[in-house]
Hints:
The chain is an alpha/beta fold. The chain has one domain (9-121): 2,3-Dihydroxybiphenyl 1,2-Dioxygenase, domain 1. The protein contains two helices and seven strands, in the order βαββββαββ. The chain has a four-stranded mixed sheet with strand order 1-4-3-2, covered by helices on one side. Strand 3 and strand 4 (46-52) form a beta hairpin. The longest helix has 11 residues, at 16-26. It starts with 8 loop residues before the first strand and ends with a strand. The mean pLDDT is 95.
Amino acid sequence: MFGTTKAFSGFSVNDIAAAKKFYGETLGLRVSEEHGLLTLHIAGGTEILVYPKDDHTPATFTILNFPVEDIDKAVDELVARGVRFERYPHLKADEKGIFREEGPAIAWFTDPAGNVLSVLQQ
């Protein structure tokens, strides 16, 4: 039924202006705004809807993953742009906040609304 439908994902934030600045300026994504909604334009033609929600509760799981060729370089650049990396007590991360033990190296951070994002070694 939906095999030929172009689906898209979305998530909520509590402040569209802060989200637009973070995703556009801090992360360097192409962002468009229409009717109070943001669209994140991801490489490869993927679009993600970001919508305002007054009673927004941040996701407790990773909502968006950014694969990168060099995780150390990506983490260093994000830190230089003011991003703080999360540390989870049950996962042993290195001094940069990168977890390298199982699977691809990965580091988590949050957007201004508290949603969890990650960069992971491709």
